[in-house]
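seq:
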Amino acid sequence: MTVFYKKDLVNSPNRLDEEEAKHCFQVLRHQSGDQIMLFDGKGGKYRAVLTQVSKKFCEFDILSSEQIPEKPFSIHLAIAPTKNADRMEWMIEKLCEIGVDKVTLISTRHSERKKLRLDRLEKKAISAMKQSGNPFLLQLNELTDFQEFISGCTSQQKVIAHVDNAHRHLADVLEPKKSITILIGPEGDFSKEEVDMASQSGFMAVSLGNNTLRTETAGLVACCMVNFKNLF
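struct:
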């Protein structure tokens, strides 16, 4: 059954948003009477039937609904955007597929990019949510100054991963069923001053292994480790 995204589904008209309606009619060729699945991005899954379909709008009636409970843990990845925007889009897609809850883009001393189109990343997240069957939409936050971010972080577990094999491996320090924030720096890594600031704000310095990983790879690997610790 085809999945569509409808934000605030309960309190809005039973009509697909323009972009979703266009995809429904022009790409998928759905007709009145076809059944579809709707995700609200907050764990709500709705089975619906299309009642009117055209190139301008698609209306539906809800047949049944289900609320998926939230996980007993949460993952917040704070990461410096890469110079190549395509690599960040790839990462966001994969993070949404594996169920990461939140991503905040952070501006650091060695950041390669100071601006990023959040709308493109949001589209990737929505597409991945629908493709993967995960009814929770990844929350994307605007570019935030590193120091501002760490001072406001309230997760139960906080780690900063950077290139130093003297630190304990992330997999050895993870605690299940807790909220966690993971800091990942740019290709040039965090500066010593940033690592020290993070430590003073309660972040534990960790290693992701002997190999030096690209920024987007490091972010994905770290989040997969948290999932593995909690789900298996």
